[in-house]
């Protein structure tokens, strides 16, 4: 039993490293597109970013399953592996949020008020970036609500506990996000 759990730890270490690389790649592509947007150009890698984020999401779900088997087997590294996978999940949520806010909405990196010249006077026009930002936030919340509603919880206790762990991770991310919005 301990040998089997140790193999799970080794697998978790290797696959979490691969997941981290996937997230690094997605983040690098996202930052490149954000720079393009800031320069007034169209993003080039949005589809790749979304694909990488979806791959990382799938990997993290599988990692949470493995973590749950470690916890069920009371392996001494179970909590450590949980924290590692949870950090990956937080990073995924962070990158996906930035992707939704900056790339999907096309919002600039900094909110700039447009100035037009009419009859010799400069008059600021309302900037649409905050409205777009709020719309993207709402879309992110609605997307996550759909995911939670459509999630299958499994028929056996270990599967249910695994899904519950992933749900709690998402819930914590949402609560942290809520605190930032309130601030």
From TrEMBL:
Spell out the Pfam families in the cross-references.
Answer: Spectrin_4
Please list the coiled coil stretches: none
- The domain of life for this entry's organism is Eukaryota
Molecular function as annotated in GO:
ankyrin binding; cadherin binding; structural constituent of cytoskeleton; structural constituent of muscle
Q: Provide GO CC annotations from the record.
A: focal adhesion; hemidesmosome; intermediate filament; perinuclear region of cytoplasm; sarcolemma
GO terms for biological process?
Answer: hemidesmosome assembly; intermediate filament cytoskeleton organization; wound healing
Query: Where would you find the membrane-spanning parts of this chain?
Result: none
Report the protein name in the record: PLEC protein
The organism's lineage is:
Eukaryota, Metazoa, Chordata, Craniata, Vertebrata
**Gene coding for it:** Plec_1
